[in-house]
Amino acid sequence: MAGERRRVGTLLFDVLGTLVDETGSVADEVGSALTEAGSDPSQSTRLSREWARRISEQQRLVNAGEIAWTSQDQVRRATINEIAAEHGIPLDRPALERLATAGHRLRPWPDSAAALASLAERFLTVALSNADLPTLADLSRQGGLRWHCVLSGELVRAYKPHPAVYRLALRMLRLDPGRTMMVATHPWDLRAAAEHGLMTAYVARPGGTAPDPTDQFDIVASDLADLAGQLPTEVDAVRR
Amino acid sequence: MAGERRRVGTLLFDVLGTLVDETGSVADEVGSALTEAGSDPSQSTRLSREWARRISEQQRLVNAGEIAWTSQDQVRRATINEIAAEHGIPLDRPALERLATAGHRLRPWPDSAAALASLAERFLTVALSNADLPTLADLSRQGGLRWHCVLSGELVRAYKPHPAVYRLALRMLRLDPGRTMMVATHPWDLRAAAEHGLMTAYVARPGGTAPDPTDQFDIVASDLADLAGQLPTEVDAVRR
């Protein structure tokens, strides 16, 4: 594995969960909305989990071709409105509108901006996310995340782990998969990337999913500094 | 104008010529290739101008629908091969192959990386270029240019000044054109941007084209520091 790692030229980064705290930020916004509505904020974790579950399910239906393409922003809006209606949550229209755009305000993890800036000195650094481009642009601006290239599943109307999204990165940037590493906190994202010949780096994040005992990722890192320490220090500038 | 400028939230940057020295870098590579081939390097300016002219002409034919989509990388390769054959330039296959990829090695202007990093603290910073995405990724990595989002005419198979490219940025990032400024050293790029309601900033660069006396750009800057000084210091974070 160590020998292979020396070949890395490009890092493809998952964003939601990996560079920004999606779960915590959304739960906080749901909690604030409930408090402002005079409702019980302790429901926020349960409701935001339910929201995340419905978003995943809609994305799965898009990937399966069972429903038409819907951007993640549209999915967020539709699903929070459903949940509010079905659970009888007393949020007025402005509160629901604010929650619908919560995806644009996810907090970066404290190490994300600096690590990304440092890794960009050595590697081609590319976002490969299920968030749509306006959301990625807003999160990048607010979180100080900056890139050599930014790609979204939106460009091929599919969501990771659909193969079209990994192929998008390989094809659009003409990358050698054997010199490209997917960085994510989601084991499912890395397993799918590995199926396309990509190297994989798992980064543990609070609230994330641990790898299965059978997962074999090229790097398992406790945070982005740990990842940077496990990557080669010298990289051929033309390697892609 | 000064009042309007205060509304800027997003800067769309032309890259070739504006952030990297396309003309000088290409002429240098042509000169080196001629020298290595034992040929007269003083032809390099003439040949590289001829090359640029043919690239522009091919892009015009793509925009006019007279030839099929061809990426800028492919256009560069085809046109240098044509020129070498027609002018009887004694370059062997490896020398031609190296010139064909010269677009990936354009030198950044000395102020580009730092200015872009500084402007990214205030504005949404987006590349909007006729270079294809692999080229933009390589130029950004080598030149230390980093972005919140990177867009290429390749995504809509058209070249600026074709309207589809400006519409791509407005549509994909859901930008308000009245809060968006195109930054370029090419007057033709800014004139086309203005037709879509975008604000415009002309940045003078060595070897570039001066504005016409009738051009009315929102900002005319001598370099990127001058541009930064003419832009507002306080920007609403959610303004797009």
TrEMBL record, chains A, B:
Highest taxon of source: Bacteria
Protein name: 2-haloacid dehalogenase
Keywords assigned by UniProt, alphabetized: Hydrolase
Organism of this sequence: Micromonospora pisi
NCBIfam families the record matches: HAD-SF-IA-v2, HAD_type_II
Family, similarity comment: Belongs to the HAD-like hydrolase superfamily. S-2-haloalkanoic acid dehalogenase family.
InterPro entries: 2-HAD, HAD-like_sf, HAD-SF_hydro_IA, HAD_sf, PGP-like_dom2, S-2-haloacid_dehalogenase
Keyword Membrane carried by entry: no
PANTHER family tied to this protein: HALOACID DEHALOGENASE, TYPE II (AFU_ORTHOLOGUE AFUA_2G07750)-RELATED (PTHR43316:SF3), HYDROLASE, HALOACID DELAHOGENASE-RELATED (PTHR43316)
An MF annotation (GO) of this entry: hydrolase activity, acting on acid halide bonds, in C-halide compounds
